[in-house]
């Protein structure tokens, strides 16, 4: 009885081992045949060593023509599969310059493991077919995939495109759990979709999509002159990073959504290359935080009104240029802190808006030209220029906002400061008029205003200077007009102990009117008890001056 049990156990073990061996079969394609003229059927047993064709989800299929068919003289080896459904474990196709391989008319194929496409190998899924790879897809140097139209290429693992060529025909779908593009070209044709989950790297590769295509990525890194050109919709749900000389470009009928929307979030945005937006994009929204070395506004509509709209959050922009002259470029900065600078910026018909309690800093040279250009600082927002040059027809603030100019030059039509806002100007020049309504204005040393300064509705002006001059040619502040209706003026001096009794100090010079009632003026520092002061408007050589006198009691 015991011996019988052992016999059963041995039989079971032999059966299990046999099943296991069969479950892990490696099938070698017969490369002694020349498949150039009539082609070879992938599913024909006679074309495989052992006369058994791969057909199980555990079968490993290998087609290796390397150095085995020199008589073919470089003729293309056509291997086809017309089966309605093919299921195998993995597929590796290899060749060399003597025997290029083309796999044509692959029907519905399900690969349980990996798909490896070698040098001089081209895989061509048939129209309206599905190619599913449960493992990883690897295309080696010189390998390629060319699909027909309406093909679904689904990679559940990772995809590696190593100096290869991939072309996805119209109305197709490609998805992968992350991808690495190393050199080569990847093309997504019209009305196709590419969804890349996880991490995607475009390294010295060109990824191009055409009309009405959709590209969705989680985390994206473009490096070493990698480029992504989208003609359709681009959706990023994670981090987007671009190294130097890399770029993202969005063209005809495209829209880019980076960080805004119910289902969209974005971490850091690091674009050391360029981001190009066209007037075919409804709007662009970049929350950040991050930086863009160059933002290009590209107008492509010819002869008809065009507009480029962008919402920019916590993003530092080095340069903004416009090409093709859009009718309007509407840029709204709505993050906590944003900046424009480092290199000259020139935009035609641009409306720059600071909203959502944001702070926009300009540190370079920004020129807004055209009759539609203006800068709007909305309620509770900040706008700062540090050592910058700004040209803009109009600058307007909302309520409770602030404008700060330090070492800056502004060429503007009108500067309107409204509703409890503040304006600080130090060592700067303004070519234009300043209108302040219910606001606080602080003018520091070395301020030159070629237009007039007009303060209304209980506005206040504070002259804050490091030192005072007794020479009329060296007045602390120069303007073409100064009018203070019903507000107040105060003077602050850095070191009051340097004031001399009996001296007259020239605060403001103006070739136009200075309409200030001296009773509206006061000092914001303390004089010794034996001294007093007075303010006075005088006319000397056709120039009006606001002067400050120090007197003894």
TrEMBL record:
Tagged with keyword Signal: yes
Protein name: Uncharacterized protein
The entry's keywords: Signal
InterPro entries found in the cross-reference section: Autotransporter_pectin_lyase_C (IPR012332)
Annotated signal peptide: 1-23
